[in-house]
Amino acid sequence: xxxxxxxxxxxxxxxxxxxxxxxxxxxxxxxxxxxxxxxxxxxxxxxxxxxxxxxxxxxxxxxxxxxxxxxxxxxxxxxxxxxxxxxxxxxxxxxxxxxxxxxxxxxxxxxxxxxxxxxxxxxxxxxxxxxxxxxxxxxxxxxxxx
Length: 146
Description:
Elements: E1 10-20, E2 23-29, E3 38-39, E4 42-44, H1 51-63, E5 73-78, E6 88-97, E7 110-117, H2 128-138
């Protein structure tokens, strides 16, 4: 006998691996979960918005870095149960490569926004280390220095 279960609530998010001269842009989270931890810029996809547009919006809101959605390259989808302690989250990750000298300023729910060398990253929140590793695997030029 088969029983029907209640549908799982799934939240939709977008993250950005933003690269500048061999460094990745990270934010220090200002809110739980992982308050105070370093993470990729990103957040929820709003109603009527694509994940690509959400990624560009979140990058600008959290770091001040503006990238046109068309210039974001999809890395992949992360959907493992348990990847976020708040519940089931499905995230699409994008890559943005910006010019040397691009400045970042923390905004929205980010305490700080800083460029970290790809070979000296801090411990990261969620599965963001896996997302960066996937970006490095797919786009081999991440360590290139300008």
